[in-house]
Amino acid sequence: MEHSGATTSALIYFLVIGAVVYFRLLRPVRLRASRLWTGPLLLVFFTAFLVWESFEGHVSIPIIIGAVVLGFVLGFPLGLLRGKHTKVQPTGEPGVLIVQPAIIPLAIWGIAFVARFAVRYFLPHAGSSALASTDGLIAFALGSIVGARFVIAQRFRELGTA
Q1: Average pLDDT per block of 10 residues along the chain, 162 residues long
Q2: Cβ distance 130 to 137 under 8 Å?
Q3: Can you give the pLDDT at residue 113?
Q4: What pLDDT shows up at residue 24?
Q5: What is the pLDDT of residue 70?
Q6: pTM, two decimal places
Q7: Cβ(113)–Cβ(138) below 8 Å
Q8: CA separation (Å) from 108 to 33, 93, 102, 113, 156?
Q9: How far apart are the C-alpha atoms of 96 and 85, rounded to whole Å?
Q10: Sequence-ordered strand ranges (E) for 6-150
């Protein structure tokens, strides 16, 4: 079975950082309005790094961009729905809310990475569309996380804490 060192190192990065993120978000989080987008932005940068590290040169950039845009557009509404079910409570401090843990968006992100790794590891000669679709899976997961955070941002505004 062939596999690239880049794919293996991407899996190692994913496992280490993913474990830290999961354990961090298994408890309620006191979230300031000013830090609302810090977590999702870190996930976007981390994901971009992992995707870039395992970039396949024989997959055309327009196909990857199309898969990423489609994945994000399909994942965003799921995030909006998930965000509506996230419990958010005000605190006594202005600009601070308690956000209950939401493991489902991160589980989707983790499953997308495992699926991406599996396709690239076990099917290294898959067609360019199959490889690009794995990037679309990642974008779907990110879209769902951003969608959920968008709803939480609206709650900050409604509660007058933003």
Answers
A1: 56 69 70 83 79 69 87 93 87 84 75 82 80 86 89 84 55
A2: no
A3: 79
A4: 62
A5: 93
A6: 0.76
A7: yes
A8: 25, 32, 11, 9, 25
A9: 19
A10: 29-32, 88-90, 96-99
CB proximity list for 158: less than 8 A, separation 6 or greater: none
- pLDDT for 162 equals 53
Upper half-sphere CA count for residue 11 (Cβ side, 13 Å): 14
Can you tell me which residue has the tokens 């569309």? 129
Residue 1 and residue 53: Cα distance in Å, rounded?
20
Contact partners, residue 68, CB within 8 Å, separation at least 6 = 135, 136, 138, 139
Domain boundaries, given as residue ranges, for the chain: 5-158
What are the percentages of helix, strand and coil residues in the chain, rounded to 5? 70, 5, 25
